[in-house]
Please model this.
Amino acid sequence: MNINQFKRRNEPTQSADKFELENPYTLDVDVNGSIMAKVGAMVSYDGELSFTGKASAEGGIKGLIKETTSNEGTPIMEVEGNGHIYLADQKKEVQILELGQQDSMSVNGEDVLAFESQVTYSINTIDSLAGMFAGGLTNVYLEGPGRIAITTHGDPIVHSTPITTDPSATVAWSGTTPEVKMNKNLSDMIGQSSGERYQMKFTDSNGFVVVQPFEEQQQ
Model:
């Protein structure tokens, strides 16, 4: 194809949607005011936008540069202004979800890409997984209303609870709370932490859990 064909084939599309997929791996957000996004996820933007680091799992407000370089917790930035921002995370697939007034979801901190500013959020750690993830597993609790975008390695599977999952493959859950179990029978067989040794048990009957066909690297 020539240059003009290449440009036409790959240029951003125009849409009235605030959150739009440009391709399976890139989110286009129409910013008119502010949104929240994962630090380091911006690949490009147009218009007049500013970026401010927000709260981490350790609490308090930290600078954007420190959050980016320290890899502590789940760094979140506020994007303010007028324009379009394009977000991606290591070619992971982007899933756009609409949270209603009564909807909430807990998402693995590695898998949060963006959410609207009216979505309430808090960042926590599951300390009982400190043996598998340094400092425990960081998760972000999101409460609607508003749109959120999460990422998955490959196509996700959504399980109804009860279900038991590998923490490294668990992306998000709603309407349920995990209990962390350790299978001590595998302690001598496996020289490293694994989903077979550490397990997340979701026993509630009315929730769901999102898993991906991939295990996140331990930190």
